[in-house]
Design goal:
This protein has 348 residues and is of the alpha+beta class. Helix content is 43%, strand content 12%. The radius of gyration is 24 Å and the shape is elongated. The N and C termini lie far apart (64 Å).
């Protein structure tokens, strides 16, 4: 079929120069695929270089403390990816003697590795004939073949996987997978694709039928929850502050934060002052509370919008286990808190 020939020709002429395309090392390919989940290439690239420099082998990553891994991941978001990455590195290093599984079926058994990532590693590292199906592939195939199946449904994933398998040249699955993903990322983009300058504009059914902006079909809507965080930044006479580790499951697990007062809505000075004095810090003598109003942000996650306020609270006593400003920067924080610290708005 002409589809894969045209696609691969386009790819060879237009592909981006990306470091993980210059290797068949499964460690580096796995690293890049985990990083690029929910992350744009431009954002993920510096992290890939940082990780491969700091942890050149899977054993180096396995032997690193989790806090170091989280610190290096800081700002990339979806921190469960980093925790799973670290645990999987330990499993490969300790249980598999540092040798990556060499098949799609075995790769699927790794923690944090789903069908897409397993297919990517299997085809790019071992040239196994297994198709990758991500958002880009859904978009390209649904438009080219005018497929209106709802991509939010599991059955549709099977439908597109079977179609991609049929289109894939069995002698070079790796380049086909790279090509179709790249085509979706650069040419057949979600909004306002340049169809007039597309190698498939004479055969794309969605273009012929005027349905490009209607495909792919996705019915499921993400329900967004609003949460209200008030971070209380204690400061004693020596300029030290207090932080805590998020041990509960959920967002930012094992990252650090300032003492947190979560409320049902945005609250004012009186509410924070009363809670701080009577419930959160009853053992300290509070001599001043200040709202760092210019630091108020709405931090948007995939399923949650966090309305965050920072409050500076001066106390008379010396803080037990207090952290100074220099040491503070060495801990892994959610990026919204890290940015606050970096801007020195702790001294607002």
């Amino acid at each position: 079929m002409d589809f894969h020939n045209i696609l691969i020709k386009w790819y060879l002429q237009n592909k981006r120069d990306l470091p993980w395309r210059k290797t068949v090392n499964p460690y580096q390919i796995w690293l890049s695929e985990i990083m690029l989940q929910q992350t744009r290439v431009a954002q993920g690239m510096p992290y890939f270089f940082s990780f491969t420099k700091e942890f050149p082998t899977v054993k180096d990553l396995a032997d690193a403390p989790e806090e170091k891994v989280l610190k290096l991941w800081q700002g990339l978001g979806y921190y469960s990816r980093a925790r799973n990455l670290h645990k999987t590195a330990q499993y490969i290093s300790n249980d598999l003697n540092g040798v990556f599984p060499d098949s799609y079926k075995e790769l699927l058994k790794l923690k944090g590795v789903g069908e897409y990532t397993a297919a990517a590693i299997a085809s790019f590292s071992y040239n196994e004939s297994v198709p990758v199906v991500d958002g880009n592939v859904f978009r390209v195939l649904s438009r080219y073949f005018d497929i209106e199946s709802d991509i939010a449904l599991p059955a549709t994933k099977k439908e597109f996987t079977a179609l991609a398998q049929e289109l894939m040249p069995k002698d070079n699955p790796a380049i086909f997978n790279q090509a179709i993903m790249e085509f979706g990322a650069l040419q057949c983009v979600p909004k306002s694709p340049n169809c007039s300058n597309c190698d498939f504009n004479d055969s794309c059914l969605a273009l012929q039928k005027g349905k490009v902006n209607q495909l792919p079909v996705k019915s499921k809507k993400v329900k967004v929850t609003n949460r209200y965080f008030n971070y209380l930044i204690l400061e004693d006479v020596e300029g030290n502050t207090l932080i805590q580790k998020r041990s509960e499951k959920g967002i930012w697990h094992n990252l650090y934060e300032f003492p947190l007062l979560e409320t049902q809505s945005i609250v004012d000075f009186d509410v924070v002052s009363k809670k701080a004095k009577e419930e959160i810090f009853p053992s300290y003598t509070i001599i001043g509370i200040e709202d760092c109003a210019e630091s108020t942000v709405v931090h948007k996650l995939s399923h949650q919008h966090l309305h965050i306020q920072f409050w500076k609270i001066k106390v008379k006593e010396k803080i037990e286990n207090g952290v100074d400003s220099e040491k503070l920067k060495t801990f892994p924080f959610p990026i919204v808190i890290y940015n606050f610290i970096e801007k020195q708005e702790i001294n607002c």
